[in-house]
Predict the structure.
Amino acid sequence: MSKKLLKELKETDLAYIAGLLDGEGYIGIVGRGEKQKGYRATVTISSTNSEIILWLKSVLDGSVYQSTHRNKRWKDSWEWKLSTRNVIPLLTSLIPYLKIKKTQASLVCDFQGNVRLGGYKSKMERDIEEVFHSKSLVLNKKGALEPEKYKEA
């Protein structure tokens, strides 16, 4: 995602994207998979409305995925995703507008600022990644978050 795209967005667009992220999104630190060890920052927004997801793709780049469901009564869903280096400029622009996921956004920005991307990582670097990942899991746990756990993360 280019900073140019972000500069072209109106304040109302940024507030709208923040609302989508607060309500239908995920901001977190996820594993890279079996082949690539370590973690990466990820932002996703899911919806059954493809128009919203395709608009996000047009204004922010990223990737779009469609999921069909086995249950015929369920609508297909769409997901827009942005990962790694591209996450920081977006979250930095959205933090003033986020209401619910501001702490997750700050954590992800700290993660990206403190973790080296790619290449060999020392045990200490892997341990730091693991701490950030654990905090992300606590913040993104489903259900009501207890205030004292919120402060610990």
Q: What stands out?
A: The two ends are 28 Å apart (CA to CA).
